[in-house]
């Protein structure tokens, strides 16, 4: 079925169509949606490939400042060394868990549950998780994951602050 277009006004009674390379009628709307999908995919690719070093500096700086603050507080006897050691150990374990999950994702193998990654972050491994998200570019785009991750960071810091204020962290000495 072909539709004719009037020459002077460019209007037609039916949707305008073109002929494809195989001489099949094509609707402009369908063609435009395909072009739109291609543009969206191109933007996604550009976003993921354009992970500029500047975008990862702030989170990494936050991690370095936090760890340095923990070590400094331990040296000033404001915080037990065990707390700083716990954060460092859990951060390393969490970074490794992210690296294993990224490797499994690339190979199509069994993945680490998101709840496991969140639990590690909540327990104090969030600096390692943040480091992994930025250096490995893993779990750094999915908004729902990132939202829960930042809630675990806030919860962990609140518990740490409460422990420091009440003296509960002293039992780790």
TrEMBL record:
InterPro entries: DUF1294. It comes from the Bacteria. Residues 1-53 are annotated as: Disordered. The keyword Membrane applies. The chain crosses the membrane at residues 57-75, 81-100, 148-164. Residues 8-20 have a biased composition (Polar residues). Residues 36-46 have a biased composition (Basic residues). The keyword Membrane applies. Keywords: Membrane, Transmembrane, Transmembrane helix. This is DUF1294 domain-containing protein. The lineage of its organism: Bacteria, Pseudomonadati, Pseudomonadota, Gammaproteobacteria, Alteromonadales.
């Amino acid at each position: 079925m072909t539709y004719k277009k009037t020459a002077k006004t460019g209007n037609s009674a039916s949707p305008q169509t073109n002929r494809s390379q195989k001489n099949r009628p094509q609707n402009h709307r369908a063609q435009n949606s395909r072009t739109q999908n291609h543009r969206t995919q191109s933007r996604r690719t550009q976003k993921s490939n354009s992970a500029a070093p500047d975008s990862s500096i702030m989170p990494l700086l936050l991690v370095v400042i936090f760890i340095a603050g923990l070590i400094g507080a331990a040296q000033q006897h404001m915080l037990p060394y065990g707390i700083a050691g716990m954060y460092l150990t859990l951060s390393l374990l969490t970074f490794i868990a992210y690296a294993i999950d990224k490797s499994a994702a690339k190979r199509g193998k069994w993945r680490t549950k998101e709840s496991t990654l969140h639990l590690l972050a909540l327990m104090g491994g969030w600096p390692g998780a943040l480091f992994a998200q930025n250096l490995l570019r893993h779990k750094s785009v999915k908004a729902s994951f990132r939202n829960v991750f930042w809630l675990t960071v806030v919860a962990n810091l609140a518990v740490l602050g409460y422990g420091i204020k009440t003296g509960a962290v002293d039992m780790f000495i």
